[in-house]
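Researcher: Let's walk through a ligand-bound prediction step by step. First, I give you the protein sequence. Second, the SMILES string for zinc ion. Third, you return the three-dimensional complex as structure tokens. Ready?
Model: Ready.
Researcher: Here are steps one and two:
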Amino acid sequence: MAASNLPLDGDRLWADIMDLAALTEPDRPYTRRSFTPLFLQGRDLVAKRFAEAGLTVRIDAAGNMIGRLEGANPSLGVIAVGSHSDTVPAGGRFDGIAGLATALEVVRALRDQGVRLDHTIEVVDFLAEEPSEYGLSCIGSRGMAGVLEPSMLEMTEPGGETLRTALRRVGGDPDRLAEARRSDIKAFLELHIEQGIVLESQGLDVGIVTSLVGIRRMEIVFEGAADHAGTTPMHLRQDALVAGARTAASVRAIAEQLAGEGQGYFVATVGIFNVEPGASNIVPGRCRLVIDARSTNPVLSARFVEAIEQESAAHAAAVRVRRVPIATLSDSKPVICDETVRAAMHQGARDLGLNSTDLASGAGHDAGFMSRICKSAMVFVPCKGGKSHVPEEWSDREQIAAGAAVILQAVKALDKTLS
Ligand SMILES: [Zn+2]
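Model: Step three, the predicted complex:
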């Protein structure tokens, strides 16, 4: 469908995205890291646009920038729409920003149409969705969900500054974090680029997200013996790398097996693989792997862990090295998106004549934390070649406008149907 037929201004939405993109580290587009002066510059622009759209702007205790427009019946609570304005280093122009600009455009389109919602609407720029220099991601949405723990505030960036101090620097209040937790939000909607190739390869306009994967990171260490590569006979070696390499192959094979069963989304990756001492003439004495396993189905995750336990132990025994007990570095549960909000999104897409499909999200998003406190769901729009977190990241103006229109229709519908 042509963007001109959509019930919002795709050009105005696009301009916001491009204006934020211009605020980048010049030598490293597109970089606007959370907590930096550039990030605050971006937020100045966001605040200005919020105000121009008629929103009252504030920053909550968790550092989220919130634009608010009171509803006709404020006792109904809040419908929130948003995403994030921070980027990864040398990232793209659309990850997060497209969703934030969409939320803003939804408010402007409602105003243009003369529609005042019964619910209060809030547009949210969540603080630091991407992993920050303090080692934590989704800081703002954690805060809004009431799970930003005091211990997390003591995390530090390489220069030694604590998150507590940094939070104050961006307008938050670490001493009043409890006030950031919300119970008045009834629904949360987020548009995001897909960061994958399903929509593009199938020629679809939007994906309505069914669930967000749970992510488990596991560390496996093999300890053998670092011996001379020339004088140690093959049958006497304790080569830790061989056990590690075989385990990496097992990760791949088990993941392919689980993904193929049709019981839910499953992917697993060995993204870190260290060998010590790492010299060409020494048998590797130590090998360390970090596995990132993601699934929408906890049963698949549990089976993966069990299979890796067994196979890595067998690989260690086969080459007579020791496997240190497997460490779980992190483990987040999958999130199921809300049925009511998803149905409103599907209906919105149908009404607009757009093609939609159900889709699992292989990445985490602010919507994952928001789902702990309110009905939450996401709309994905296609992105070129599935590329994200790189400067080439791209979505077309019409693609984003179409996804934004789905959010707009869903907001209007939910305003009437949410009790
Ligand atoms: Zn994002």
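Researcher: And what stands out?
Model: Residues 84, 95-96, 129, 192, 365 surround zinc ion (CB under 6 Å). The CA atoms of residues 247 and 312 lie 5 Å apart.
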